[in-house]
Input
Amino acid sequence: MTVAGDKVDYASMRPTETALVIGGGVAGMQAALDIADQGFQVVLVEKTPSIGGVMAMLDKTFPTLDCSACILTPRLSEVSRHPNINLLTYSEVTGITGEAGDFRVKVLKKARKVLEDKCSGCGECVPHCPVQVKNEFDQNLGYRKAIYIGFPQNTPLVYTIDEENCIKCELCVKSCDREAIDLTMEDEEIEIPVGAVVIATGYELFDVSQYHRLGYGRFKNVINALEYERLINASGPTSGNLMRLSDGKIPKSIGFVQCVGARDVQKGVPYCSRVCCMYGIKNAAMAKELRHDDVKNVTVYYADIRAYGKGFEEFYNMAKERFGIKFIRGRVGEVEEIPKNKNIRVWAENTETGDFLKNEHELLVLCPGILPPKGLKELAGNFGIEVSVDGFIPIQYPASNPVDTAIPGVFVAGCAEAPKDIPDSVAAGSAAAMRASIVLARGGEL
Amino acid sequence: MASDEEPRIGVFVCHCGHNIAGTVDVERVARNAQHFPNVEHSSDFMFMCSDSGQELIKDMIQLNKLNRVIVASCSPRMHEPTFRRVVEEAGLNRYLFEQVNLREHCSWCHAREPEKATTKAEDLVRMAVARAALLEPLEVKTVEVTPHALVVGGGITGLRAAVDIGSRGFKVTLVEKESELGGHLRHLSTIYPNKERAVDVIDRMLIAAKAIEGIELMTDSVVVDFDGHIGNFEIQVKNMKTGKTAKRTVGTVIVATGFEPFEPNGYYEYGNNPNIITLAEYETMRSTGSVLRISDGRPPKQVMFIGCVGSREEGVKGHEHCSRYCCTAMTKASSDIKDEADEVMVLYDDLRTFGRGHEEIHREARQKHVMFSKFAHSKKPTVSIKDEKIIVKWKDVLSGTYCEFEPDMLILATAMVPPQGTDEVAKLFSLTRSGDGFFNEEHIKLAPLTTHTAGIMIAGTAQSAKDATDSTTQASGAAAKATSLMARKNVEIESTVSWVDDTLCSSCHTCVQACPYGAIEMSTTKDPPVAFVTEAKCHGCGTCAAACPSHAITMRHSTDQQIMSMVEAFLIPPTIKGGSE
Output
């Protein structure tokens, strides 16, 4: 159990009984749980200070509008308390040798400068820290200190000092009764013997500023969908009060632009990102849900609405009928800022009617597609896997062996393989766990 | 703790971010609860389910010597296990925990009435306090899990699941009603995204399945009887050809009963012209030879596909859902046939080529000059037949023009619907079904493979329409769930079951009749025989307790006394000592 205080001797773990899971998002957590539940040991390596992945940042989830934190938090606790799961957060896999049943993995434990076995997560240090920087977890819309946790459910509940911004004033050290802060701590590289590996490194979002014409980065009231998620989230930087970044006003007319960095050959993203239609519709519904009567106009600009999953089409219908959201089939051509009120004028063609539109919105949300995460190519390369043209991990027989990579003993789950929504990532996490457990049980064979 | 100990109750009211606190005045609820009888601690907190919320409960149990804990937060469906574990870690029996649902029962359903929602929240907490004082510790029981799994359905999903469980070293019985294994894939030509021959995919799985000793493949067979509980299900499988039945005892079950392609009678003149066929019929033709017109045996030259046949129909029960596979399957088929036909056209509503490699197939089809035309969601194409010619008329919404085409073969991409017999399967395994007719999972986001019946998993198109890749992903995933149970060897079961007081039982058999789960029998070791409950089968529904004319049956954790105390607390609010603000 990786509750603070335990010292795990990673070097002497037995490869026949241990799996490595890379990535602590919803897919990686599921893989870890389903391997650990079978009685095997799991080393779960996560590069940020907390497990939870992108799902932890989301407000509600489609198609039931279940609150993301509400359903994810028990999963976080389950992982952190599981007797067979060893959490290595703020750590990265840097190399691997060996073969199925007997790999040696190198993991870089970055110095978090806080002793995991002493920190109780009380947060006494925070008010003493004089350095305030933008919080990545809030998409840089909120602030955190140089000693921080990204979000209240940070798992493990241990603070981290971000070395880049720490001014070494040692005020936090003095404030900590438990003497949990050690500014001299250095990165450490450890080697772990494991028998099977699950790659679940997730994804990152397309940088929407690449579409100059859509105004992101130029106009304050053009934001991306993850920023929107944080703005409507109760534990986000505005405590869930959706407001414009230009003036703090509640937007009464909101536009959502789909397929920004998806299905676009020119931008190197020829594929569909699979989740954006639904999160776009969900976010549109939330605009109405949050501010029932205030928000008069919510419009979604789309190419095809791909409401393919269980309950999705039904949700799409509800968005149209119950929430009164307008859907316009047409990619947005260009946007401009109206100087006097900082509203955003959207130029688009309704391809179903042929009408040329000039709509004014008080807020415009761009819905970015999904990219393979930075470093996936190198990580895969370490394993001897060459990523596909799309940048994700290739699968030779998708219909029969959807989570098997070309390397025996190495499996893939969630968005490391291709864009996926939460249930599909969870299913893939379980699937990768199954395949990995077979390798462990059979000493390297599948 | 001894149950005669004085109750010391802790109340923890959760904000759940804005979910509850946005409507309900949680501080007021917590403040008021301090004055209820036996309450030794009451506070509010941002997220009770977070690690710090959990620590708070443990700390307060220690500090105030609490022996009952109430968390007023969300539905117990999600977090009851979390908080039960927390109180257990602090040394309390898990059944001394009580959860109040302020989110689904107050803030969400009364979002526009914060004052009334708060009053209701206070009522619910007061009732829970009354009940908590009467809660009793119950013994936590476990059952052994038989290391043998049942897989129902021998399509690609069932085969994948069986091979995984078998490879992992557990026994599997796979039951398939057809004579051949492989399901619908046997009738497809090639499958997307990599255009593998479907038969190769099936062969790969069949070779693997047959090579594993622990896998028993039963074709021509159906499960005719199913009884028992997690870890110990008794099944009877009947071979429909020989009439013989076989009995097996299994610990876990994976239901992979698949789908059937919708037969589009009444749509687009289907059945009125031999050259109007479904995509499934087209694939069967292609997989067994070449695609030829039924009317004259000639290869078609003008081929048209229509999408969303029997899918995405608002208000039509069982057809409201998107069938998920058809856009890409139809696009792939259009690309294939374009190599042979002169003109190929695809009519669609939205083109949902969403998965990995799907857009590439879409682009390939367009590069081969397959024509794609979008019709309006509310205005589907019309098909008529004149002199044995098929005439299709529709409005292309992108150009705004009315179009007409005379295909010599019209292929309808029909919906995936639950197969015949799904009702019986649902009853047999106690599964519920969603609006689309497929089986319900335990949780649509985070538990897509388990069901509300412990020990029974669903996978593939039994859960919802999907393609082979997504089906086998679920298959391996469901196999992991089954394997976890078997590898653990023992699982805990609920102790909230009914209990018969022998001395009061009048041997009337009323409860035996009333129990929907067959959990009550008459114990013949007593004279006269008295009712006896098999606890692992009991779902704790309470029907027997309500039916018993002798008041001999007690529902543990929902005793009459506990329930009446809540009613009283609601009707007679206690006088508040010290007054409240």
